[in-house]
Amino acid sequence: MVTYRQGRNFGNVADSEFDFDSPLTKFAIPIVLTYFALGALVFAIVESLSFTDAVYMTVVTLTTVGYGDLSPSTVGGKLFFIFFIVFGLSMIGFAMGVMFQKMAEQVDGENEAKLWIFRASEGLLGKIGTAVLFDLLALIILTLVGAFFHMFVENMSAIDSFYWTVATYTTVGYGDLSHSGDVGTKWFLIFYILVAVALAAAFLGNFAHLFVKTNMDAKLKAVVEKGVTENMIKAMDVDGNGDVDRAEFLQFMLIKMGKVDVQSMRELNVMFDSVDLTKSGTLTMADVVAAQERRIK
Question: Which of 10, 188, 198 is nearest to 95 (CA)?
């Protein structure tokens, strides 16, 4: 039985040689902070807002919470909003997603200090199921925090407090309820909105991922139980020689499972062929050196 093994330098050499990260991925935190600062600065100047109101307005704008208590009232503010939100939603949404993904990867890292509860949960639910579970628990805690704040600080009823909180992190923002407008409340909402909206998005994303993965695992299990058929062999036989080797089998299954796309596989095959000058089907150091020399010439 052949098993897949990573090369002995996979963890360090490969990571440095194959850098597919975009600038948004590398500089996610500075991009987010800079864009928020830009929004707050422009809103403060154009709309004549205080520092607190400018930051608050920027947060409720970019997170699309939109309570309705603050909105652009000048021509300049409205024009800035148009470009700020259209450009910002895509860029900041991606950058914030990268930030929270990196945080999740650090928590999820394989190390001795990892909490036993994470290890136990992964054994029962898998990594994605564990992410969904802990996202849900964190979201429940944040819901309680938001609701209690509005109950005891803003003097809202229990129903209105929970209603306001859920409407906030789902970014519904009906605008039918209003808070006192105190500076302390606005600063609480600034930090609460950023954390709660991101966590709610992570929960929904992981839940959707879990659903897709569960469905894909079920389909894969059914295929494995059914076994390889003649029609599958015909579909897998890329070179048309009547035989299917391991590479053809893996390529076909990975594409069908949605792990890779056809275009990416084609580009990788072209890359391999450009180095495999002898057309032997394998790469050697001599092939790599010869390909580099030819590229220099």
Answer: 198
